[in-house]
Amino acid sequence: MKKLFLPLLFVLMGVAVALFRPVGPSSALWDSASGTLRVCSSWTLVPRWGKAVVLPRVATTTTFTTPEGATVTARVQLELGPGAHLQLAAAPTPEQGLAVKAGQLAPTAKLGCLAQNTCRQKLQEEMEASLQRLASGSAKASVVLEPDPAALLAFRRQELRQRVSPPRRRVLVVGWDGADWELLSKLVARGLMPNLQKLMAVGTYGELSSLTPLLSPLIWTTMATGEPPEVHGILDFLEADAATGARVPVTSRKRKVPALWNMASAAGLTVGVSGWWASWPAEAVNGVLVSDRLFFLLSDAPGDAPPGTVVFPPEHEASFRELAERAKVETGAPTVATFLPLELPRIQEALAQGRGMADPIDGFRRILVGTRVYMGAALKIAESKPHLLMAYCIGTDEIGHLLGPYLPPASPGADPALVQAAPPAVERYFAVVDRWLGRLLEQCPLSECAVLVVSDHGFKWGSDRPREFSGVAAATAALWHRPKGIFVLAGNGVMAKGRTGEPASVYDVAPTVAVLLGLPLGASWPGKPLPGVSLASGEKVAWSELVPPESYRPRVQEVKPSAEYVAQLKALGYLEGGETQGGSGSNTEGELNNLGLLHLEAGRLQEAEEAFKKAIAANPAYASPHYNLRRLYFESERYEEADRELLEALRLGLRDGRGALQRALADYERLGLRERAASLASSAVTLFPRDAMLRAAVLRYLLELNRCGEAVEKAREAVSAFPQDAAVLAFAGLSAACAGDTASAKTWMERSLVLNPNQPELKQALRMLE
């Protein structure tokens, strides 16, 4: 018997293994016939047939229908603790059993409730509680209810339209890029802009604080959306094409949130848009949208985009293309001469060369064409009396970049003929812009309309402007901009408050337009209505949910790069020249650099540093993010890193490099950090070997630090490089005197005084040596 026992035991164990299997406390047993799910509390043997072993977490999806007929998806998940017992519906799998049970417990909810976050959350919690009551022991349920997006959007749109009454007035928004009170106030006082003067006399006006960086696409999109650039997504003049990674002119495809024309259209109001920044491809609106590609001032090509993408609705595109072509053809040398008083042959020669914005004469012609195209398009749209009309003029900024250097006091080396012609040309141009405003006011009189004139930033027309030309291949354009633009608000629904004291903000434009149209404010908007407009009342809305991009954004094929566009941006000083050399990616190096600046201005230092470093990684030859890192590190007292980044930016050809270095040295002097100033200046000498003032500054710092031996060594090098520079010789003499080399000190001091006798302190030092 003993001999048979062991074999029999092994046989029985084999049978047991064949018929049963062990499951641990982390598993659950499913009985498909009864629909019960039981979680094991310890190791258990279960038959290999009839029961399914599952994890104690079950997830499924089911649907139900609202009384309005909308489909709602319920995403359900259950987690069961050891020993828990759950009664579901009989089904082949626990997931199917849970789906049936969840469907039975689904709420009878109207779409209006599901559209509200608070109400939907309450329904989810009630359904979770019902599911948990099906279990004995530890059980946790989670439910997410997702109404059909199309049905939910339709409901919200209908609710919005019921909320928005027919507006009491129409609204006209006129954008003058770069308009500044320094120039406009003078022109108004001289009677050259009577229509602007009329608005000022009967309305409210003042300054409009802008954003950093002072770049048009970012700011005009902020005014149109109410959102910061890091939210709306337009961050530069160029973007990366998603298909090819190529750098292309900025488009509306990058915008992540709706603009005012999308919001008004969704509310059932009619709209018109003419030439707004980053509005191509033309979006579907309840009205007419003429994109910024009807006449691309930066490429001198009417309708330089695929047919059907320039204007919405597409059937109107042909007539607007004809308008643009006619404006270009009819704006020839005689027209330019009526504004820019130069000899006709010179104008004809300049137009024949076609250098665009790199030439003040041909660039001026382009400005005239662009102004006529977009103001003419706006006037054509205005005939249909849309509730909202938004018209943009770029020429009010570009004329400053072109002719500003020729205004008194003229920049060094300025052409004398242009110095004479520029002042009347600027005055005549702004007088024409004012006449276009008057024609729009005829179509939209103040008794019927609220009129808002705004600029994205100001412009340095006076003595504070840069002393160099805007220049090819150096991003100097923003140096000409002031951080405060203008606003003038008048007409129906506007209080006449005259000039305001505190500046408003570009964030206040969208709330102002919304209030005047009777639209709800955006819940995430940082701005408020401008002075002269009543504060908004009523519940704010999430416009991005009400008007998602897919509801208005057209589909276009690959966007082609534009070498001409890039060349004109360089000519105007908006690009340094290296921004188009980076690799592919969802954001260009320019966008990342600007994003870093936005973070830096907001005090988000870590995010700023990450963005600048990403910009450098995308394009190591790009100087600007290095300089911006210098500012970040300096403000964080990380001086070694700050100097390293500044020197790298200078090496890469930073715009206004010498000015940047002088400002950095001045920062250290202000803080009393002479050692740092001396170190930075000495390092910079290798980058600017022909800068005599920098050599003199190095000697001055070393003397102030009493490092006489080092100073006299540097002095010999400096005198050898600049034997006829009075400042270098003066500090060289002082360095030699400090080191005890009296002979060299006398020689250098005497030579300096020959070159510049007006140095009383040096004379005193020389007398002391003698």
TrEMBL record:
Keywords: TPR repeat. InterPro entries: Alkaline_phosphatase_core_sf, Phosphodiest/P_Trfase, TPR-like_helical_dom_sf, TPR_rpt. TPR repeats lie at residues 589-622. The keyword Secreted does not apply. One of its GO terms (molecular function) is hydrolase activity. Pfam families: Phosphodiest, TPR_19. PANTHER family: BIS(5'-ADENOSYL)-TRIPHOSPHATASE, ECTONUCLEOTIDE PYROPHOSPHATASE/PHOSPHODIESTERASE. This is Uncharacterized protein. It comes from Thermoanaerobaculum aquaticum.
